[in-house]
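Proteins fold reproducibly. Consider a sample protein:
=====
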Amino acid sequence: MHVAIIDDDKIYHVITRKLIESTVKPKDIFEFYDGQEALDYLLQNQAAPEMLPDVIFLDIQMPYLDGWQFLDSYSQLGLSKNIDIYIVSSSISSLDHERFNQSNCVKEFIVKPFTRNKLTEIMQGYA
């Protein structure tokens, strides 16, 4: 299993990586600090589905290319591999939740903090 974390918070990366590694044994954890970094990786590896993540944990509030902009661009890629995307954000804005409800490529909106129980629930489908 390949997991990607897209978030500009370095501490969140450390905590989430440890949480993932202690909950499941992923083959790879890809870490990106903005949406553009992640899009570049997906584009570079679009012909190699085995190099693409199975799951993306995406923050929406990031500088440069935020999560919503990432999702807009991602939906245009037409990747051959289905990637499950989960928004993990501290946003409690009703506008963000409305936008999530209108999105067809995001499985769930998770309000931080990301818990071990929630991660276990998500990862059960990939065991």
